[in-house]
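mind reviewing this fold:
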Amino acid sequence: MKTIRQRTAFSAGLLALAAHIGGVHAQSAGDVQTDIPVPQVSGPVPVSAESHPFGAAAHTLQPQDLAQMGYIEEEYFISGQANVYDWPERGTLTVRTADVPYTTRVLVRRPVRAERFSGNVVVEMLNPSNLFDLNIGWAMSHTQMLRNGDAWVGITAKPIAVETLKQFDAERYADLSWANPLAASDPLNCEVSRDTTQATENGLVWDIHSQVAAWLRSANADNPFVYDGTASAAEMLYAWGYSQTGSFLYTYINAIHPEVVSVRGESLFDGYLVAVSSGPAPIHQCAERVPRDDPRRPIENAGVPVIHVMSQSDYLAGIGSRQPDSDAPGNRFRRYEIAGSGHASPDELYWGPKPQDLIQAGRAVPPLACNEGPRSRFPNRLAFNAALVWLDQWARDDIAPPRADLIDVVDGEPVLDEHGNVVGGLRSPYVDVPTSTWNGNSTGESFCRIAGHEIPFSQEKLRRLYPSHDAYVSAVTNSVNALVEQGFLLAEDGADVIREAKRSEVPRW
C-alpha cells in the first residue's frame, strides 16, 4: 500500500508515513507521531426549557424517556483540524488542503451506570439527505441497543446539517463550523449545487470521524465513557452508516481506514455496518463520483468485520456492488439483501426530529405517506438488530454470521413468488408467512421512490392461506423458530413477531 503524501511531495519517506493524517504532523524523520489526535471537547452542552439538542430523544415524533430506561443523553461540541484529501486510486491518498479548523456536534446516548454498559458503542454519521440530521441507526436498532446496554454516538457529518442546526437554535450552535479555507476564486474550490456551497467543505468528515473515535477511546476526563475516571469503558466501536452515510463509510473503509491502520498500527473501529449504499461517496465536494467499474469500489481486506446490508428498494440498482461473502481473517465480509424491506422506512421519521423543530429549522417535514399509501411498515429492525449482534460476535469472538442467499434476479428482473414477493434474500416471517405483497419502491414527493409500500391481501386470500387465526399464529411461530435456529432472527425479536401475530385479526372476520 502506498503511504499518504501531500500534494507537494515530502523529500523523506518517513515524513510521508506521518504526513498530516487527521492533523498528525511529523516533527522530524526520527520523531513520528503514531496515533490519531483527540479533538478538543466542550460539553455536555446544557439543556433547558429554552434550548435542547436538535433531534434529542425527548423531542422526536415519538418521544423517548431515556431516563426511564437507565440511559442519559448528552450533546458535545468537538473541535480540531481536519484535512481534505484526494483519492486518485486505491492505495493512494493525498492531502488537498491541510489542517482545516472545524467544530461539529456529537450526540451521545449511553447507560447511566457503568455496570449496565455492554462496552459496545455504535458510532453513526448522522444522515443529512433530508438536509438535517437523521439518527437512522438509533431509529432502526434502539430496541437492541437498549436491551443489550449498548451506547450510541451520532456525529453531525455534513455542513448542510450544521446550517440546519444554526437555523434551529442560532445561539446554541453558534460555534459550529465546517468553513472552507479556500476562497471561492481558488481553482481548487469548484462550483457546487443542491446541499453544498463553496463556503464550506464536505471532505472534513473523514478526519472528524477518526478523531471522534480517538476521543471515545481516550482516557480524557471529557470522554463520556470514562465512568471510573481512569480509562474508557468503550471496548468496541462499531461504525454505522445508512444511505448517504453508508456511502461515507464505503469511502472511509477503502480510503481512510488503511491509512489510520498504518499510522496507529490498528483500526479505530472494530467493525463496520454499511447500509443501503452501493459505492463510495466522493472524497471531497469537488471530486467526481467513483465510476461503477473503478477498483476503489469493492470493500476488501479491511482487517475487521464488514457487514453490508441492502434493502429491496435499492438492491437491484446497486446489484453491481454485490461481492462474495468471506471468512478470511483479513477479509471478513457479509452481504445481506432484506426481502420485503423499504429503504426509507417510517422508523427514521418516528424517531427523528419532531415536526415543530423541523419547521423551526426551516426544513420541510418528510411525508409518512406516498401515492400508494403509508410508507412501508416492514420491520427493518429485525435484520439490523441481528446485524449488530453478528458484527459484535464476529469482532469479539470470531463467530462468523450466517450466510444468506441474495435476492434472485434473472435477466435483470427480480424473481417473484405467487404472492408477488421477491424470492431469496434475508428472510423473515413477513415474506415467508405473508399477509401482504411488499414493494420496495413507491411514487410521490421527497424520498417516496425508495420508501416502499405494502398491498394487503384480500380477506378471501387470507382465508385460503390461513383457515383460522390459530393456523396463522402456528405458521408464524414455525417460521420464527426456523429463522432463530438458522441464526437469521434474534430470539427476542422473534417473540415480538409471535406476539404481533397473536394480536392480529388474521383471519378473524
User: Anything to note?
Assistant: The chain has one domain: 5-456.
